[in-house]
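cron nightly-structures :: item 1 of 1
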Amino acid sequence: MEIARPEYIDVSRISGPIIVVEGVTDVGFDELVEVVTPTGEVRRGRVLEVGRGRAIVQVFEGTAGLSSSETRVRFLGEPLKVPVSTEMLGRIMNSLGEPIDGNPKPFTEVLRDVNGSPLNPVAREYPRDFIQTGISVIDGMCSLVRGQKLPIFSASGLPHNVLAAQIVRQAEIAAGEDFYIVFAAMGIKHDEASFFRRSFERGGAIKRVAMFINLAEDPTMERIITPRTALTLAEYLAFEQEAHVLVILTDMTSYCEALREVSASLEEVPSRKGYPGYMYSDLASIYERAGRIQGGNGSITQVSILTMPNDDITHPIPDLTGYITEGQIVLERELHNKGIYPPVNVLVSLSRLMKDGIGRGRTREDHADLSSQLYAAYAHCNELRSLASIIGEEALSQRDRAYLRFGNEFEMKFISQGKEENRTIEETLEIAWELLSILPEEDLTRIHREYLDRYLKKHRGDVVA
């Protein structure tokens, strides 16, 4: 028998997306709330703080039109739950999992807590299996592994949306395994939402994608719920349906701006650059929902995209994200200005789990050696570029000029590729060998002799060392 919940009318303060309700009893943190406006409209919210007979409520749809004297509040005694179903694949939904694509609502009676279920760290399985994105600079130098959290650090004006869409279209795992993608966009414009939809529909990728869209004009509070709703569906697909799920979250900077707005409404003491002091733990509650569970076949892999304000990688958002995640892929404006796509700066990008997800039986036995050698050679090329800018390229030795040639070819053939170009890992590694054949063989000290004998000779041909 359902217990009738009391209705409160004592709203003492309305500030931004926040209302304060006095005289409450038997209310818990994160509890779902119904807010009834003076016109009878019902809005949903959740309890942010409770104590001393007072509850602070965050209203998802915003507080516009609310009145302190005429607003009624009902506490529902349970956390926010959202529907989950395999029928949500191929659909476009809002922040609360409700369809916005004009098609019928997916049939499901399964509801799950939007905050997820905590994972016992001891039950986690170490990520080891390679995910092919079809993008050479990622697959070859910053490999993505099932169960990993690998963010993309971008900046305003860089093609992170194009890169995200390409990853969604091209990402692959071993044949015969269920592989789905959950895509969540926060604070995007209408033209960006249309771009993502068209991009996923091209080639049929939309069939395996569940999209959650929060537009810039939507209430700020829905922005905070969006990634949690998306991850709730991902957990259902991964841990109950035993599928492998790739979650794309963009843009986490919009999410953090929403956190700052809520913190300001609560009049909390700000931390760095006005962001709340709990932003680290809040981001961790999202990022740590990725992973694998021992004894289960499913996995959740996260690629979160954030735009660094003023291209500052030390800004609190990328800084805190880097502490939580297992590496980062950094997009660089200088490469973008050269016309290189994707403009990934490999020297500051890394995947900390790459070594465990590549090699014999996963990619190819020479993958790790190639990646290490490419990194060392490109780093040396950049040192020589600085030297050449001072003394002139003509003053460099023939060996040094070979490194400069390698650097140019590396940027134009390995890092840069078409926005519709899907390269297999074999193609990526062959391009790497072709580039390394430009350098003197005695300089390839990071590659085992057996791999040099097996792969280098066929690429020497007409290349002048």
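cron nightly-structures :: done
Residues 17 and 62 are 5 Å apart (CA to CA).
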